[in-house]
Structure formats: structure tokens, C-alpha cells
Amino acid sequence: MRDFPPVTRAYTERGADEPDTRSPLRFLWWMVRANGVLFWVGLLVALIWMVPQTLGPWIVGRAIDTGIVAGDSAKTMQWILLLAVVTVFGAASGIAFHTVIVREWLIALYGTTKLVTRKALQLGHVLTRRTPTGEVLSVSGSDGDQFGALMEVTTRALSQLAAYLVVAGIVLTTSVRMGLLVLVSAPLLVLLGAPLLRPMQRWQGVERARNSELTSMATDIVGGLRILRGIGGEQTFGGNYDTQSQRVRESGVAAGRWLAAVESVGVLLSGSFVVALMWLGTREVAQGELTVGELVSFLGYGLFLIQPMRTFVEFAQKWTRSVVSARKAVAVLSQRPPWVHPAEPASLPSHAPIVDGASGATIEPGRLTMVVSAVPDDCAALADRLGRYLHSEEGALVSDEIPEELKGRAALRERSARARAREEQARRDDERARQPWGVTVGGVDLASVELDEVRAGILVSDTAPQIFAGTLRDAVDPLHRLSREQAEQALHTAAAEDVFDALPGGWQGELEERGRGLSGGQRQRLVLMRALAADPEVLVLVEPTSAVDAHTEARIAERLGAHRGGRTTVVMTASPLLLHHADEVILLEDGVATTRGRHADLLAGSAAYRSVVVRGTEGTPTLAERVEPVEPAEPVREGSR
Fold it and tell me: Where in this chain does the record put each ABC transporter domain (predicted)?
């Protein structure tokens, strides 16, 4: 089992073999080569599997001519025993062939999944800026299955092509006319079936595009289900999903019609071939040019050749589907990360001031700094710059799916236009990533530091974090580096004791995917707890308490500074409860830092700051002033683990 699960090192290890994404055909050939020796072993086993099937009709014919017709019982028994041996050998080789061929299929399927996973790890946030989620999931799932099916049918088709040529040679040595009929039948089948492949490919592409859109809709609905229930939008979005589901069904039915037409041509021609072969055979028997045994052999070969002919049709179908899938896979896997390794990497200074050139904001080391703006996107953009993330652009996603009403040259032009748009987007990302980043730590620009070191030293916890299924301990401390006391301290600071209590089993309690069993506030505090547990040198939190109630927010505000004492913490927020405990507050106006100071001083001296922070009329006490200090909650009891 050394080849399963498939070993994939592409994209995350330097120098590892990567897929050939120059074209869909090159990618499919790379998939064949990725199977390595297994593909050739599968082909060899398939050829061995076909040998008994080519010998069977010949043995039956010889048994009739030399045994039954001649009245020789001994000869008849010899041929019967030989046929039994060949049959047993064929059954054993068939088992081996099926084992190898399924192995090829699974390696291609799960190999594709691992490729997409590693590409997602390599690109990180860049992938979601460029490609819709549904397309990525479709490549990982359904397209990977298409590649596995292609590996299986390719091996089978090559082995049966060899058997087809062997049978044609045997028939030619006996009857030239019948041999020519055998040789012509397969090309004629392909020639007549080819015109049906193009509309079948088009509808399969439409089905694939609609299914990708349906997957994206399902992802969005699941992610925002709680919000939809809150605003009463379940029926609206459910209706949209139902409509799109029906469109997928309609395109699948249309593709199925053309598939049925291709299958019908295969059945019609293969049946006609057997009829023609038997007509010629009986004529030659009547003329004394063939024996009865040879006629029976020809009948057996005629029935045998139906299988290769049907396989050739199946290969054409799966090849068509795989080319469509390969085009989508190339669109995802061909994307390159914009980051480059610095020629002379510098180390990230510790406990040093951080200066953002775009906004002019300076973050002093070891302090709890909060950033306020009337435009939340300005704060989010600053957080992205501090963590060296490319800021998301409105409408930046470029789908590989083209409008289904486009056909022929119009479809080619649209596909080319989208390819150029993706290239232009990648060029802009490359240009931005290769320039000085504009954020310095202790005078060192982040572009001069290895990206891995930046990620390790500066952690950005944004407003759309992910929670994966698993235990609470894995969600908070995936690397299992924390002691119980450290984990409980992070739990206490995030005021997430209710999350702990809500899970049977405590730290070993199971979380559902995306934390579906938790409320919005509980999920947000779980994410905050995870960020605190990572304990980075610089922690950037974007609206960490937007979904929690005022009393819980007050507890978090009181505990956050003490927990992060001596380390740099930046919080993007307009909450008076948090701002009241900040060491320093920076106000952004039009993305530029214009004012800085303590919360109370800014409330008294800055009208712009008050307009963003104060809720209500002038003179009304702020929420921070109205909420009384909250006593620290009791730490988690040892008996409740």
C-alpha cells in the first residue's frame, strides 16, 4: 500500500514535481505519468486478462473440427480441459485486473483532492480572491472522479485495442473479407459517433458549470443559515437553490440524451457488425471455404468484439468529460502565489514599533492599540497590510464558467477574455507583492522578511475565520503546545466558559463543522480564544466582539490587556467598551491616521472621534461608562474537564 493514499508533495515543498498545467491535454498526460509504474502494471495485467478471451473462440472451433466432427472423444476432452484452464486463468487475471484498475481510479481521485488541498495551502487567501469556492470544490470532488474514471477506461481501452488487433489478425489469416470487416468496423463506429460528441461535451460543460454554481450556493447557505433564519430569508434562498437544482437536472437530462444517442450508435453498429459477420461466414461455409468450427469461432469473435467496440465508445465519452474537467482543474492549479523569496532575507525584529506607510499609523511595541474608523473597510485594509495579506477587491473573482448561451466562436472568445482577466489579476498581485510592502517593523519592510516568518510573528484574526470539526482542544490548540493552565487562561480571557460548559466532555467535547452547534457570539469567542492561545509577538484582531453582548464584551475588554501584557496587540473596533481599556487609540479618516491618544482624551477633544464612537446624543454617557466593572469569572474547575 505504498502508493495509497497517494504521496503528493506539489506546491508545498520546493522542487517537488508539479502538474503540467500548460493545457488540459498536458495535464491529463501528467495524470497518467503520476500513476507511475502502477499504470503500466495495470496495462500489463489488462493484456493478460484479455488473452483468455481471445483464445476461447479459437479453442471452441478447434474442439468442433478436430473432436466433435471427427468423432474423436479424446480430442474433444483435451480441448474442453484446455478451455477450463483458460477460463480459470481468465477469472484469476480478471480479479487482479479489477484490483489494479480500482487502485488507479482511487489514486487519481484522491490525488486530485490532495493537489487542490495543497494548492489552497500554497495560495492561502489569494485563492479565494481569484476563484469562486464552488469551482474549487468541484475540481476536488467531481472532477477528480472523472480523472479516476479516465485512468480506468484508458487502461481497459488500450488492452482491448490490442485484443481487437489480435482477433483481426486471426480472422484475416482465415478469411480476408471477414478480416477486413473486423478492421473497418471500429473506425466506422468512431467516425459515425464523432459528430455526437461535440453537443454531448457542450451539455456536459453546462451541467458542470450549473453544478459548480449550485455548490457555491449551498456553501453560502450553510455558512449563513443562522442569519437567514434571523431575517426570515430561508424560503427565498431555498427557492433559489431549488431553481438552480432544477437547472442542473435539466442540463443533466440534455447531456444524457446525447449520451444515449452515442450509446445507441454503438449498439446499432456493433449489432450490425455481428449480423454482417455471420452472413459472410455462412456464405463461406456454404461455399466450402470455412469449416463449421471456424464459423463458430467467428461467431465467438463477433460477440467478443462487441466489448471492445463498446469500450471505445465509453472511452470517447469519458475522454470528453475529462477534457472539460481538466480545463477547470488547470484554471485552479495553474495559479501561482504572488510572493517571492527575498534575495537577502531579513529577520523580523521583536518588540519594535510597526509603521504603516499608507495610513501613517504607528503601533508602539508591547501596548494594546485600538484603531477606529467610520469606514470598517479602512480598518480591514490596515489589518491586511499589517499581516501582509492582499486586500480583497470588489468583483475580483473571475469564474472559469462562461454563460451557457454562448457557443462556438463566441464561447472561445469569452473563455479567452476570462483567461486574460485572470492573467491580469495575477499580474497585479505579483506587482503588488514584489514591491516594498510599505509596513515596517523596527525599520525592516515586511517584503524583506520570509513570508513564513511574518505569519509566525504577526497573527491576523479577521471577521471570517473558520472553525473545523473536532475537539475543543484541537480547535483552540491544534498543535497541542499548551498546558492545561495556559488553555484555561485563554478560555478565561475570551469569556468562553459557556462554550466549555456547553460541550459534553469539556476539552474533549466535539465541535461540529463551522461550529454550527454554537451561537454567533460563542463562535466569535472561540476564535478569539484560539488567537490568544497562539500567543504571537503581534496579534491583530478585527472586530473580535461584534457578536457578543455588552456584559460579555466588558469582561473581555478588562482581561485582554492583562493577558497580552508586554506584547503588541492591535484591535480594529469602534466599541467604547474595548476602547476604554486601550493603551492608545488611533483614528482613521479616509484611511489616514489623523488623531491618536487615550479614549477619554479623544472623546473630550475630537469631534470626529465622538461621531464614530459615541452612540446617541451629546452628553449621554457612553456604554463603557454605564457598565460597571465585572468581577473576573472563576477559572475552569479541574473536575469539569
Answer: 340-615
